Fold this protein.
Amino acid sequence: MEDRADFNRNEQVLRSIGLDVIDSYDEELEQEIDDMRLGDASVLEALGIDDDAPAGELGRRTYFRELLRLQGELVKLQDWVQRSGEKVVVIFEGRDSAGKGGVIKRITQRLNPRVCRVAALPAPNDRERTQWYFQRYVTHLPAGGEIVLFDRSWYNRAGVERVMGFCDEDQYEEFFRSVPEFERMLVRSGIRLIKYWFSITDDEQEARFLARIHDPLKQWKLSPMDVESRRRWEAYTKAKEVMLERTHIPEAPWWVVQAVDKKKARLNCISHLLGQIPYEAIPYPEVRLPPRVYNPDYIRNPVPDDMYVPERY
């Protein structure tokens, strides 16, 4: 029985690694294929993008089409936020390797970084450890016409700091006393606050960690803290359950994203996010390119040869 269980586990790990490779390839395609070409079935077929997938899984062609459609809606959302002066904060939390970064990347992929930016804070320095806990996060909150995506947030205290012993019991309890009122203050100030928890299974996290270990391009994603989190799976589970129970408030509820299937998680999260904000398409006047002005006495100065980047390709 143990041999059979080990065989099934190895099969799952190998399948996860294979899916991860395909996902990395698809990420490049997402960047390069434009919307018009993607709508052409013959182009999709030539690129090997079809809808063949096991029952219950999402076909790649459907994924590409839906992703680009949703990204088009995100552009409309961005324009509406900028025009209306709205302030939007979206928090992404979850276990290590749960797929938060992949969703954030797809949200920002076609947006203006001056309107939609990501806040991914490092560990606090010595000075920040003496500040009011929320102080370093406040500086990243949006002004009017901005969207901020927190790749982890003040909920570090309820998760990694709790599990790894980086905060004491008094700091932990003070966080839970403060955070509901802190978030209510944000909402009263006019900020739209949306919170997502990305949920994956024990087996899926292990498979993703192993995929990162064996992929030189992704090993940087696996920090010593991530490795230690694997050993403390149950402690993180208990911390997550307490966090969701004590911070799920009407003004800023938690939304759980089932994230075992990365592609479904991205589409589901983006679609849900769009549904949380009453945006509408902003009409813009037609853009007309003015005629180029030519001055007969203008002479372009030559660029020295040693300033050019060598053309090796």
